[in-house]
Automatic annotation (TrEMBL):
It is a multi-pass membrane protein. The keyword Transmembrane helix applies. The chain crosses the membrane at residues 21-44, 64-88. Belongs to the Ycf4 family. It holds the Pfam family Ycf4. The gene is ycf4. GO terms for cellular component: photosystem I; plastid thylakoid membrane. It comes from Discophora guianensis. Seems to be required for the assembly of the photosystem I complex. This is Photosystem I assembly protein Ycf4. Keywords: Chloroplast, Membrane, Photosynthesis, Plastid, Thylakoid, Transmembrane, Transmembrane helix.
């Protein structure tokens, strides 16, 4: 929800705390955990999950590959959950007509450049282009050409 007055317009940016990221984080975590448990079950030779008959899966090569996919999926899901908890990409765009200033603030990954803050004059903007794409991978991008 944007905030607007006579001279100032503030547009908040959602970032990585979107419903789709939460869903993908859960799906990838549960899927990779399942792969890892089936791979471990085939290595141990007994069922850790009663849903799958792991005695039918030979550890080398199927169980080993499933364990690898499980570990890789856990790394990917941990990346998702870290970006969600750090709220990477969130921030705001502020347009101040009275002062003639545009401020863009975003949160990044932890480190030296965690806070991204760009400030410039409105008169320095040469052109503005807005790109909106709908669908499954919807996105809105604001391009500004500055002197």
């Amino acid at each position: 929800m944007s905030w607007r007055s006579e001279h100032i317009w503030i547009e908040p940016i959602t970032g990585s705390r979107k419903t789709s990221n939460f869903c993908w984080g859960v799906i990838i975590f549960l899927g990779s955990l399942g792969f890892l448990l089936v791979g471990t079950s085939s290595y141990l030779g007994r069922n850790l999950i009663s849903l799958f008959a792991s005695h039918q899966i030979v550890f080398f090569p199927q169980g080993l590959v499933m364990s690898f996919y499980g570990i890789a999926g856990l790394f990917i899901s941990s990346y998702f959950w870290c970006t969600i908890s750090w709220n990477v990409g969130s921030g705001y765009d502020q347009f101040d007509k009275k002062e003639g200033i545009v401020c863009i603030f975003r949160w990044g990954f932890p480190g030296k450049n965690r806070r991204i803050f760009v400030r410039f004059l409105i008169k320095d903007i040469q052109s503005v282009r807005i790109e909106v794409k709908g669908g499954v991978y919807a996105r809105r991008i604001l391009y500004m050409d500055i002197k």
